[in-house]
Specification:
Elements (H helix, E strand, L loop, with lengths): L2 H8 L3 H13 L4 H10 L14 H26 L6 H17 L8
Helix pairs in contact: 1-2, 4-5
Length: about 110
């Protein structure tokens, strides 16, 4: 389909079609414009956010990071008070807190 034919199908000028093509190439075309062009081409516009990794991996990684940050803050305070703990105890604390985070409110993961 030529730009002239597409313009006629959409009900715009050929220059508008070319402008839309440039906007799409720049990544700033609007969804409403894409929807109009899809309709003229007898296509369905699908707009989706697709995770790069499995969502469960993302959630578990966030929970681990939060748990490690919280345990590190507590551990630092305890070391200042000469009450430091070993690495094994730290890892057990991280695992326990990570499980509590995963079992708790999901919104805690995204603060």
């Amino acid at each position: 389909m030529t730009t002239r034919q597409l313009a006629a199908s959409v009900g715009v000028t050929q220059a508008a079609v070319m402008d839309a093509e440039r906007a799409e190439a720049r990544g700033d075309i609007t969804l409403s414009t894409l929807r109009r062009y899809a309709e003229a081409l007898d296509c369905e516009l699908t707009y989706a956010l697709v995770p790069r990794r499995p969502l469960q991996d993302v959630v578990e990684q966030r929970a681990d990071r939060i748990a490690r940050e919280e345990v590190a803050r507590v551990r630092h305070t305890m070391e200042l008070e000469e009450q430091g703990t070993g690495d094994d105890q730290r890892e057990r604390a991280v695992a326990t807190l990570r499980r509590q985070i995963l079992d708790g409110r999901p919104s805690r993961l995204w603060r």
